[in-house]
UniProtKB/TrEMBL annotation:
Cofactor note (record): Binds 1 zinc ion per subunit.
EC number of this enzyme: 3.6.1.-
Ranges for domain EngC GTPase: 107-256
Name the record gives this protein: Small ribosomal subunit biogenesis GTPase RsgA
Protein family according to the UniProt entry: Belongs to the TRAFAC class YlqF/YawG GTPase family. RsgA subfamily.
Keyword rRNA processing set for record: no
Binding site for GTP: 147-150, 200-208
An example molecular function term from Gene Ontology annotations: metal ion binding
């Protein structure tokens, strides 16, 4: 097959490169990762592969191992081996739960992060803000999708509530994931060559939406618990699927914990940061200080207490994670301080 044909084929799986590797190595995309190895797709077929030995070395940052969404170079063989990962256009990651700082890659080379929440008991604006904050550092565009519109008469109130809370311009779609006509409003995020990842709690309906977009019941789904709308962790691995629309969609397992990585900017709360800068005292604790702009906004209802609390929680977590990230990077540099502080914007302090 000619290079032109190979490139044309790779386009079907979202590859944007202009030239194939000079050494003639085969390029493919990671579409699934299992305990036993990887599944790759070259735009025409799926095949299994193992990571080369250097990916298994102890001490290697897990974020450097091949992840779903990656384009990799492959050495033929039985089985084929993944030799290297091509530079990532975008990366969505979270920090692993636990004491040690570790970034976990959720998906790479994605254009859109589709944050899916059910309009049932799953609905939780604070959690949506957490997902949007994580997305900020990824390089991909966030899109909020509210599912199960067909099941909830009070859906409209929740949608309006969210619109008032999120920055203007954040796309919000309310859908019935089971209805092909309803999901056509997402077509703009799944165009040929584009890739999107679906994230959200278990039971939100990620696999249901994936199946509707695919036009087949490829992913298993299961009913949520009646009393609290919780899902049953049906999907257990990330799966990248080429859609009939020409776009690629990554379905993921519902995540129990979503820790910030420390690289977020919290642009979502820029209005609150602006308020805090308007306080009379530069070191205002936003408690009972005179001239506190935050208290004034809380008092007159301009700022909701719930959103303020979520901001404080995310800000503190971001600071803590940023400190852990910085000390890990320092260790990697052999104890030298960073030449350029890669701290979050919140660490800037006024000098008055
Ligand atoms: N009526 C209705 N039911 C939905 C909708 N979206 C999802 N469901 C139902 O919600 C349940 C959970 O859907 P799943 O697609 O399995 O959820 P998931 O997000 O993939 O969950 P995990 O794989 O566990 O993370 C299923 O019973 C779906 O039929 C929707 O828009 N309308
Ligand atoms: Mg699922
Ligand atoms: Zn204040």
């Amino acid at each position: 097959m000619s290079d032109v044909q190979t490139i044309e084929q790779l386009r079907h799986i979202g590859w944007r490169g202009q030239a194939l590797p000079a050494d003639g190595r085969r390029v493919a995309r990671v579409v699934a990762q299992h305990r036993a190895g990887y599944e790759l797709h070259d735009g025409s077929q799926i095949f299994g592969a193992q990571p080369a030995g250097h990916f298994l070395k102890r001490g290697l940052d897990p974020a450097e191992r091949p992840a779903v969404g990656d384009f990799v170079e492959v050495e033929p063989g039985k089985p084929p081996h993944i030799l290297s990962v091509q530079p990532r256009r975008t990366v969505l990651s979270r920090a692993a739960a636990g004491e040690r700082y570790e970034r976990q890659v959720i998906a790479t080379n994605i254009d859109f992060v589709l944050v899916l929440t059910g309009l049932d008991g799953d609905f939780n604006p604070a959690r949506i803000e957490r997902y949007l904050s994580l997305t900020e550092g990824s390089g991909a565009q966030p899109v909020v999708i509210l599912s199960k519109l067909d099941l909830h008469d009070d859906g409209t109130a929740r949608i309006e509530d969210l619109r008032g809370r999120l920055p203007a311009g954040t796309p919000i779609h309310a859908i019935n994931s089971k209805d092909p006509a309803s999901v056509t409003q997402l077509a703009g995020y799944l165009r040929s060559g584009d890739s999107a990842v679906l994230v959200g709690s278990s039971g939100a309906g990620k696999s249901t939406l994936t199946n509707t977009l695919l036009g087949s019941q490829h992913m298993a789904t299961s009913a949520v618990r009646g009393h609290d709308s919780r899902g049953r962790h049906t999907t257990t691995y990330r799966a990248l699927l080429p859609l009939p629309s020409g776009g690629c969609l990554i379905d993921t397992p519902g995540m129990r914990e979503l820790k910030l990585t420390g690289e977020e900017h919290l642009d979502l709360f820029a209005d609150i940061e602006a308020l805090a800068e308007a306080c009379r005292f530069a070191d205002c604790g936003h408690g009972s200080e005179p001239g506190c702009a935050v208290q004034a906004a809380l008092d007159d209802g301009e700022l909701s207490p719930e959103r303020w609390r979520n901001y404080l929680k995310l800000r503190d977590e971001r600071e803590e994670q940023a400190a852990m990230l910085e000390s890990r990077l320092r260790r990697q540099r052999g104890g030298r301080p960073a030449t350029k502080m890669h701290g979050p914007r919140g660490s800037r302090e006024r000098e008055s």
